[in-house]
Design a protein that fits this description.
7 strands, alpha+beta
């Protein structure tokens, strides 16, 4: 059997929208009585967090029993994949989400990483792999993988 390999197909900053900002503010601070200073600090924190999120699309060939999506991190980061999805071979549709890993020799997956550092590699079940420079998120991924804020 061939050795498993991982290739990052793309790394995309999550597009900032007023709607996303409002949803994130509501999720983290909704219902709280904040002073003006606290409100400004909260808004600044939310903007920084949203600016640090990347959608990663990767292909894993010759998948074996060592594959674990939670291994896909960055060095010295405690962030793990969020809202992961396994895509069709052409990346046009979602096959499964979460820990329901398709039984395929080649997997195509997409997931979000918070506090992403573009200068660092992606750690995987099979070692570190380079990450391409940030690119504009393709419309197919924007439709398949809308970012939902988390608390």
């Amino acid at each position: 059997m061939a050795n498993p390999t991982v290739r990052v197909l793309g790394a995309y900053p999550v597009p900032f929208t007023d709607e996303l900002f409002a949803a994130a503010m509501d999720m983290k601070y909704g219902g709280l009585e904040l002073s003006r200073r606290e409100q400004e600090a909260a808004e600044q924190a939310i903007r920084a967090e949203l600016a640090s999120i990347a959608l990663i699309e990767a292909e894993v060939s010759d998948v074996d029993s060592e594959f674990d999506v939670t291994d896909f991190t960055q060095p010295d980061s405690d962030q793990v994949p969020y809202d992961e999805a396994y895509l069709s071979a052409d990346g046009a549709r979602v096959l499964t989400r979460g820990f329901d890993v398709p039984k395929e020799r080649v997997l195509r997956l997409a997931f979000f990483l918070h506090f992403f550092d573009w200068a660092l590699p992606l750690c995987t079940s099979y070692g570190e792999v380079p990450v391409p420079p940030p690119a504009t998120m393709p419309s197919r991924l924007a439709a398949l993988m809308p970012y939902e804020p988390m608390d």
